[in-house]
Amino acid sequence: MKKKIIILTLFFFSALLFGQKKNEASSDQCFICHESVGSTEADLYKKDIHFSKGISCADCHGGNSQTDDMDKAMSKAAGYKGVPKGNAITQSCIRCHANPAMMKKYGSKIPTNQYANLKNSVHGRLAINGSEMIVQCITCHNAHGIVAVDNPASPVYPTNIPATCGKCHSDPVFMRAYNPALPVDQVQKYRTSVHGIRNAKGDPKPAQCVSCHGSHDILSVKDPRARVYPTNIPSTCSHCHSNAEYMKQYKIPTDQFANYSKSVHGIALLQKHDISAPACNSCHGNHGATPPGIESISEVCGTCHALNAELFSSSPHKKAFDERKLPECTTCHSNHLIITATNKLLGVSQDAVCSKCHKPNDPSKGYMVAKEMKQMIDSLDSSEKNDSALVHEAEQKGMEVGDALFKLRDAHQARLESRTMVHSFNEAKFNETVNKGLKVTTEVKTEAEAAIHEYYFRRIGLGISVLIISFLALLLYLYIRRLERK
Ligand code: HEC
Ligand code: HEC
Ligand code: HEC
Ligand code: HEC
Ligand code: HEC
Ligand code: HEC
Ligand code: HEC
Ligand code: HEC
Ligand code: HEC
Ligand code: HEC
Ligand code: HEC
Q1: Is the CB of 190 within 6 Å of ligand 5?
Q2: What is the pLDDT of residue 82?
Q3: Ligand 5 centroid to residue 279 C-alpha, Å
Q4: 445 touches 453 (CB < 8 A)
Q5: What percent of the chain stands above pLDDT 90?
Q6: If you measure from the C-alpha of residue 183 to the centroid of ligand 5, how many angstroms do you get, rounded to a whole number?
Q7: What is the pLDDT of residues 363-409, one digit of tens each?
Q8: Which of 117, 191, 202, 464 is geometrically suited to a Cys-Cys bond with 216, CB 3.0 to 4.6 A?
Q9: Measured between alpha carbons, how far is 236 from 246 in angstroms, rounded to an integer?
Q10: Cα 337 to ligand 8 centroid, rounded to whole Å
Q11: pLDDT tens digits, residue range 311-365?
């Protein structure tokens, strides 16, 4: 008996609940009629987040949602607006989405800044037709069947983003009308990157268009405020790549940013704001996979260090490194923590890079050559330092050293050239450059020494003349006194 009552009560309450739910949905006559005539919009609307909040077709289209009389429901008098076009579409969305009070009414706490951001973004500009924005809210979110953005069915869910942006950005005809110089290969290239490959497999975590560019607030890549502007790139990438928790499952290091910001490149870009220094994307590409392999690293570095790359490519190391799968350039310089190169890198001492591979029992000439290169460059270095000291000494003594100063610049240049020439890993070529420098330093030394010599010579000369003149003056004085006494 008791059981029966409980079951009955349960039945009663569930019927009440069910009925209520049905009631809420079915009070929208627009939806009811449209569903009954099999409209796609009504069908899509069943899973729409707005439907679940009790929002009616009339909240976007206007009209009277309480009557089942089609003419009355969809009459101008009842405020029916028909199908919105152009900016009227976005206006219909922002009636709520840019209105905190309205959103609060629905118990929502999501941001209400989408329109403000969109209006100021690249996409908020006027479209070719001159009467509306390039994009409307529905361009990325659709009009019906809108779900929460973290629902995998959303067109703005990470794995669907490339297709959503690609609708326009992969369409050359459409894009040419706006900016013929803008590439349309972003999605295609993106698909070749680790990010894009994982994204295509359904992994939402790797970067997609929005992680690097933003969503409502996308700016031109040339805008210094853009997330992809060179000085902002490292922090855009490190948002994920320095987050050990986020990156845990991938088992790759998360120290790239920490190292990069201590490197010559990082210091130049982030502290000196020198945008000729590479940001992450200069080496890794914007969209595609760069570098695709260890044999092409020198090409990447070579976009800026052209001479080093050229010399390296024709050096004995090119083949040797590629065969042994040793990354080019970065084997000696590292990739993220590249520091200022000094002579210490060269040679066969403990901290020299050459000694990592070339040992005293080296069957190739590598060890010998490394040792000799180091001696050569050290001697050029110390000659230059000596010369510099001599020339400055002469200068301080007031001697004319314009020519020597000029040559000193040549010597400095030769030293810089020889640092680059290291990358030929060819003794003859290297020696030729160093010897050119040494020849100049010898000349400078001779000139500076001559100037200093001249200075002392003149000083002694001056002393002697002063003595002679004083002596003569004394004689004259004595002579005059004798004449006066007479
Ligand atoms: C009794 C049925 C019925 C009701 C109630 C009704 N509609 Fe319709 N509606 C239709 C039919 C049928 C069509 C398609 C024929 C047409 O285009 O006139 C239509 C067309 C539309 C269109 C497309 C118009 C166009 O120009 O393409 C919109 C938008 C629309 N309805 C919205 C609404 C809204 C909003 C409400 C509630 C305020 C509503 N409807 C109420 C039956 C209904
Ligand atoms: C969140 C706002 C919103 C809601 C809610 C909404 N619509 Fe729409 N609807 C739009 C927008 C915006 C368009 C214009 C779409 C476009 O230009 O592609 C549209 C277009 C339409 C069209 C014309 C489709 C066409 O291809 O021409 C119909 C019909 C329609 N809506 C019916 C409905 C019905 C029925 C409902 C309720 C079940 C509904 N809409 C709810 C925003 C909304
Ligand atoms: C260029 C594509 C694009 C356009 C246009 C766009 N959105 Fe979004 N929207 C997104 C993406 C992508 C997200 C995912 C969340 C994120 O990363 O910001 C999003 C998220 C949202 C959210 C979830 C809350 C939030 O801010 O993250 C709302 C609400 C929203 N958009 C509303 C709008 C409205 C309203 C408009 C028109 C004023 C609009 N969107 C225009 C791409 C777009
Ligand atoms: C009548 C008010 C109203 C209108 C009009 C409206 N929305 Fe919404 N929208 C809401 C509410 C309420 C939510 C639920 C927010 C929440 O869950 O916190 C929502 C949710 C969303 C979401 C999902 C946000 C999330 O949390 O992931 C998107 C996207 C969205 N709306 C886009 C649009 C677009 C596009 C239009 C115009 C075509 C539009 N909305 C028109 C009130 C509205
Ligand atoms: C890993 C970060 C990242 C991802 C993911 C990404 N971009 Fe980019 N995007 C960049 C960078 C960096 C630039 C170039 C900035 C510069 O040239 O200074 C750029 C440039 C652009 C440009 C300007 C034209 C060009 O090609 O140089 C467009 C348009 C663009 N991206 C669209 C997209 C689209 C669409 C997607 C998704 C398929 C996407 N981006 C994914 C980082 C990214
Ligand atoms: C309706 C088509 C359309 C959609 C969808 C679209 N864009 Fe655009 N986008 C454009 C147009 C048009 C421009 C402006 C080109 C110009 O004037 O230089 C542009 C500009 C850009 C730029 C700036 C390029 C520059 O000049 O530096 C970026 C970055 C960009 N879009 C990224 C995205 C991303 C990311 C998405 C997806 C979330 C997206 N776009 C979706 C049409 C679209
Ligand atoms: C939204 C988070 C996110 C952002 C932003 C992001 N990445 Fe990634 N990235 C990932 C994830 C996740 C992987 C996958 C790791 C894996 O498979 O090894 C990845 C992989 C990579 C890889 C390949 C690593 C490997 O396995 O060899 C490189 C290189 C890379 N990202 C560089 C960048 C650069 C450069 C930027 C900025 C322009 C950037 N990423 C921005 C999340 C991100
Ligand atoms: C001077 C060029 C250069 C710069 C700048 C650079 N990288 Fe790298 N990065 C490399 C090279 C080279 C590799 C090794 C690639 C390989 O083995 O295929 C690498 C490897 C990676 C990897 C794979 C995992 C690892 O650590 O080996 C990630 C992720 C990565 N870089 C992210 C970044 C991020 C984020 C930045 C900016 C903070 C950045 N890189 C700046 C050249 C660079
Ligand atoms: C986008 C251009 C660019 C790319 C790509 C680039 N560099 Fe650099 N690199 C620079 C600039 C600019 C400096 C000077 C920074 C400064 O002001 O100190 C520099 C400095 C250096 C130095 C220190 C030079 C010195 O005088 O001691 C080394 C070593 C170096 N880079 C190696 C590399 C390697 C290896 C790669 C590839 C993995 C690479 N660079 C990629 C632009 C680049
Ligand atoms: C076998 C080791 C090794 C490899 C491989 C190597 N370097 Fe170097 N690099 C050195 C040494 C040693 C120096 C320091 C020379 C000095 O200052 O005495 C140096 C100096 C430099 C400098 C500063 C001097 C200058 O030319 O301005 C740059 C830049 C540089 N390397 C770039 C590169 C690039 C780019 C690559 C790849 C194409 C590369 N290096 C490959 C060992 C190497
Ligand atoms: C990562 C290992 C590695 C490093 C570091 C390295 N080398 Fe080598 N080097 C090699 C290999 C491997 C060969 C090829 C040897 C062979 O063919 O037997 C080679 C060949 C040479 C050769 C040509 C030898 C011949 O027989 O003609 C010279 C010269 C040379 N290296 C100089 C240097 C100098 C200078 C440095 C330091 C700046 C250096 N190497 C750093 C691995 C390295």
Answers
A1: yes
A2: 95
A3: 14
A4: no
A5: 89
A6: 10
A7: 889 999 999 999 999 999 999 999 999 999 999 999 988 999 999 99
A8: 117
A9: 14
A10: 10
A11: 999 999 999 999 999 999 999 999 999 999 999 999 999 989 999 999 998 888 9
For 241, the token pair is 């790549």
C-alpha angle 358-359-361 in degrees, rounded to nearest 5: 120
Q: What span, in angstroms and rounded, lies between the C-alpha atoms of 140 and 157?
A: 10
Which residues are near ligand 4 (CB < 6 Å)? 49-50, 53, 55, 59-60, 92-93, 95-97, 103, 106, 108, 110, 137-138, 141, 143, 146, 148-149
Cα of 82 from ligand 2 centre, angstroms: 9
Cβ proximity of 329 and 232 under 8 Å: no
Q: Any idea which ligand is nearest the CA of 148?
A: 4
**Can you list the residues of the chain whose pLDDT is less than 50?**
1, 8, 10-25
Residue type, 81: K
Q: How far apart are CA 296 and CA 327, in angstroms?
A: 9
Q: Ligand 3 pocket check: which of 140, 154, 219 to mutate, most ligand atoms within 8 Å of Cβ?
A: 140
The tokens of 25 are what?
């949905």
* Contact partners, residue 183, CB within 8 Å, separation at least 6: none
Tokens of 482: 């004798």
Is the distance from the beta carbon of residue 297 to the nearest atom of ligand 3 less than 6 Å?
A: no
C-alpha 340 to ligand 8 mean position (Å)? 18
Cα separation, 387 vs 441, in Å, equals 7
CB-CB neighbours of 278 under 10 Å? 22
Q: Would you say how long the chain is, in residues?
A: 486
At residue 426, φ and ψ (nearest 5 deg) are -130, 120
Dist CA 423 CA 425 (whole Å)? 5
Tokens of 346: 């060269």
d(CA 135, CA 426): 59
Query: What token pair was written down for 11?
Result: 């039945």
Cis geometry, peptide bond prior to residue 234 (ω within 30 degrees of 0): no
